Amino acid sequence: MTATLVRVTDLAPGIRHFVFAAPEVLAFQAGQFASLTAMVGGREMTRAYSLASAPRGDFEFEICLNRVDDGVFSPHLFSLGVGDTIELKGILGTFVWREPLMDSILVATGTGIVPFRGMLQDLFTRGTERRITLIYGTRYAESLLWAEEFRALEARHASFRFVPAVTRPAGDWTGATGRVQPLLLEAMGGRRDVQVYVCGLKEMVDNVRALCKERGLERRQMIYEKYD
């Protein structure tokens, strides 16, 4: 189906949030990805992008990505203006909440935060008593996407904790510093009765999975999505 770009927002240097409208109501699960197809340089190309939104029973879906200057598809998306179109091949993926839901720790770096935004919107709209911790790492504070949105969610829900961290803090940064792995271990606190959801680049995801395995978590308790 053909989707039309209806809104764009630059969230950080080289990172853009896109809102598309489809011609029909979309059914999907928070955390899944959109498979998009376009003619780029005379070739038909397809790429998958995590959804940044929860299902709302309407026509819109949201994605967010960084521009890869030596890439092909992301520069094409960044060239689109409001009113331009792209082909939505489908919405797929298994990076979704696992039921029954346990107390959960979400770990993201960079644009790995994207699916968690929709998943958290969905979860707290439905309501939960489970304790949810979001650990989100970037190099610089200005690259923390939707930080105020997550802080507002934390203020509204006592069961939710937001832990942003940067590896290259500026002088006015008062939050956590360093990599996400020590923060994960701190959040786990020796517990084995939790689920860990992790999304980001392959090296980080593999490292977090290894840490969880060392701490006694079973494979079914580790839910992950790797980005190239």
Which structural class should the secondary elements be placed in? alpha/beta
Rg = 18 Å
Instruction: Look up the CATH topology of the largest domain.
Output: Rossmann fold
Report the order of strands and helices.
Answer: EEEEEHEEHEHEEHEHE
Under the CATH scheme, the architecture of the largest domain is 3-Layer(aba) Sandwich
Which term fits the overall shape?
globular
What's this entry about, in short?
The chain has five helices and twelve strands.
What does this protein look like?
The chain is α/β, with parallel strands linked by helices. It folds into 2 domains: 2-92, Beta Barrel (Elongation Factor Tu (Ef-tu), domain 3), CATH 2.40.30.10; 104-227, Rossmann fold, CATH 3.40.50. Helices cover 23% and strands 37% of the residues. The protein has 5 helices and 12 strands. It has helices at residues 73-79, 114-126, 147-156, 180-188, 202-214; strands at residues 2-12, 15-21, 33-40, 43-50, 60-66, 85-92, 104-109, 132-138, 160-166, 176-177, 195-201, 222-227. It has a 6-stranded antiparallel beta sheet, with helices on one face. It has a 6-stranded parallel beta sheet with strand order 10-9-8-7-11-12, with helices on both faces. The mean pLDDT is 95.
